Amino acid sequence: MKRSLALVILTLSASHAMATELRMLTSYDQTSAYTREVAQRYITKVEEASQGALKIGLNGPDVVSPFEQLEPVSSGVFDLLYTHGAYHTNTTGVGAAMDAVFVDPDATHESGLWDFIDEHYNDLGLKLIAIPPLGSSGFQYVLKEPIESTPGLEGRRIRGSATYTSITQGLGGTPVLMSGGDVYSSLDRGVIDGAAWGLNGVEDFGWNEVAGYFTKPTFGQTYTYLFMNLASFNALDEDSQTLLLEQGKALENETAAILDELAQQEWASLKEKGMEETYFQQSDAERLDALVNEGIWQLGVDKSPEAVSNMRAIAEQNNMTATVE
Question: Is Signal included in the keywords of this UniProt record (predicted)?
Fold first, then answer.
């Protein structure tokens, strides 16, 4: 019996010693809905599927700014990155351009678009693991004051990433490039009049304390990314590589429904805390999707002309994007 117990202990110790420890950067605060429901969910899925053989430690934007995270992952300082493409448009426009594509993870794979994006990032030293959508719809504005005219953002300074520049300008606003973590203090001090954001996380950031309104209708769609350092990925055994990719694909098919439900819950909670819906007038509302999609494609083309033109061609050939009439 003692010998059997010793063998069990040795086996468990050896398994623990062989566990691969990976380090992930997230572009979002560790308490945010996106980190919690996407990055953390992936970490849990991987650790459970691998029975602890693959472990992932998470580091937030307090360690590396969201706008500077691509390089330390592509160079191998960190193994994994959870981010949005808009945070690295200084390097490539491909990641951000995905926000002009309809949410349908199966179509993204079957059309060849997923493989196209993967090959593009391979040249940057990264392996694509997953493109999780953040809901079936993508964006909203949080405003200090309600919309009362058209264009709805006339004269307002609006926080955003590069993704939102075209639509904010098209609605009369002035874009201000700023990370999510700086929005609360900027709204509080009157540096900005509102913020463009996804459909989750306003409550996590506490923006309801410094802004009174969120806009309807919502518009567009948005995706985040899970990347891995290519050399680190290639150094793993084939089973581990397959596991990471399989869990990434499973994640892609889960996140839209999860975040849609969370958005509904958050809007209800924000109303209880005093926020109100404010509506774009019809003339603005009818062009929200066209403004954001066309702006996103143009942003991508400006940064990476050939790659994003090819990407758009794939999307249009497979009826995966809206075109301006």
Answer: yes
Are 177 and 196 within 8 A, CB to CB?
no
* Residue whose tokens read 């958005």: 263
CA–CA separation, 196 vs 5, rounded Å?
58
Residue 209 CB coordination number (10 Å): 14
**Other beta carbons less than 10 A from residue 281's beta carbon:** 13
pTM greater than 0.85: no
As a whole number of angstroms, the longest Cα–Cα distance in the chain is 81
Give residue 204's Cα distance to chain centre.
16
Indicate the helix (H) or strand (E) that contains 263: helix 255-272
Q: Two tokens at 145?
A: 């004051």
Residue 89 CA: distances (Å) to CA of 96, 158, 163, 168, 260:
7, 19, 9, 18, 27
Q: What is the block-wise mean pLDDT of the chain (325 residues), using blocks of 10 residues?
A: 42 56 95 92 98 96 95 97 94 96 96 98 98 94 97 97 88 94 96 95 95 97 96 97 98 96 97 98 93 90 97 95 68
Q: Which residue type occupies 65? A: S
Separation CA 86–CA 93 (nearest Å)? 8
* Residues whose CB is less than 8 angstroms from the CB of residue 83 and which lie 6 or more positions away in sequence, other chains included: 25, 26, 27, 66, 69, 70, 95, 224, 225, 227
Q: Cα separation of 59 and 41, whole Å? A: 15
Distance CA 177, CA 147 (A): 22
> Is 18 in contact with 51 (CB distance < 8 Å)?
no
B/e letters for 167-187, b = 16+ CB within 10 Å, e = fewer, are bbbbbbbebbebbbbebbebb
Tokens of 86: 């808009």
216 contact partners, CB below 8 Å, separation of at least 6:
140, 277, 278, 279, 280
pLDDT at 162: 77
